[in-house]
Amino acid sequence: MKLVRYNEHPLLSHFNDLDRWFSNPAEGLGNFGRFFELADRLAGANRYRLAADLYEDDHNFYARVELPGAKKEDVNVELNNGSLTISYNRKTEGDDRQESVDLRRSLAVPDSIKADDISAKLEDGVLTVTLPKAEERKPRQISVN
Amino acid sequence: MTDTELKETHGATEAVNGEAKTEYFLKPRYTVRQEEDAYEVGVVMPGVQKNNLSVSLEDDQLTVIGTRSDTVPKGWRPLYEERTRGDYRLRLQLNVEINAEAVSAKLEDGVLSLRLPLAEAVKPRRIEIQ
Question: Which of A67, A69, A100, A145 has an alpha carbon within 20 to 30 A of B107's alpha carbon?
Answer without folding.
Answer: A100
